[in-house]
Amino acid sequence: MEQDRERRLIDAFLVATRTLVGDYDVVEMLQTLVDEIAGTFELDAAGITLANQDGELEVVAATSTRTALLELMQLEAGEGPCVEAYADGEPRHADTVDELRMRWPSFAVAAEAAGFASVHSIPLRSRDVVLGSMNLFRSAPGALAERDLAAVRALTDVATISILQQRSTDQAARTQEQLRRALDSRVAIEQAKGFLANTHQVDPDVAFSLLRRWARANNVLLQDAARAVTDRRVVIPPTDAAPSPAGR
C-alpha cells in the first residue's frame, strides 16, 4: 500500500515537471494533477481555480462535475476557502462542518449538500504572484496529515512554476496569454462534455472520460479534441470502439 502511494506521488510530480520542457496542455496537466492528488492522498475531491485577466477566479480542473459546481458556487458567492486563499496568498482550511458554518456560511450549505465535511485550499503562488488555488475536499472531518499537506504544497508549487515558466522575452504577457488560453480551453471542453453527454445520454463525468481517452489515444491536445467534437469533425462513440471522422 505504501509503495503504491509513493508510486502515485512520483507520477504526480512527473505530470507537473514534464511540462517544464516543450509545449504542453495546461488544462490536461492540471486535470491529471487533481486526479492524482485526490487518489494519492485519499481525498474525496479536488479542484483548481485560476484567475482570468480581470482577476476573477474560474474553475479550470475538478475531479467531478459535483466538485466543479461547488467551486463555481463559492466563486459566485464571493465566499469560501478558495476565494480567500487566492485573495491573500495564504492557505485556508476548515476541519469540521462547524468550522465551515462559522467561517463561510453560504459555502458551508453547498459543501454539506455535496457531502463534504472538511476542506483545505492552497494558493498557486510564486513569491508575490498568485494565480489561483488548489482545493481539497473530504467527506470526513479532520485535518490532513502534515506530510500529505507538505506533499500537496510541493505539487502545487511545481504546477505554479510550470504555468509561470518564461517562454518569451516578455514574461508578463506570456503568462497572461497562457492563462487566457487555459481558461478558453476549459470553455471548449465544457461544451464538448455537454455535447457528448447529450448525444450518448451519459453522465458529464463519463463524457469527460471519453473525451480525454480519445485525446490521449490520438495524441491531440484536450482543447483541440473538444473543438473537433463540437465542430462535428470527429465522432467519439460511447465505447472503446475507434472514433470516426464526422460524416462517414
Automatic annotation (TrEMBL):
Listed InterPro entries: ANTAR, CheY-like_superfamily, GAF, GAF-like_dom_sf, GAF_ANTAR, WH-like_DNA-bd_sf
Keywords: Kinase, Transcription, Transcription regulation, Transferase
Recorded superkingdom: Bacteria
Residues in ANTAR domain copies: 169-230
Key word Protein biosynthesis present: no
GO MF terms, alphabetically ordered: kinase activity; RNA binding
Protein's name in the database: ANTAR domain-containing protein
Species assigned in the record: Curtobacterium oceanosedimentum
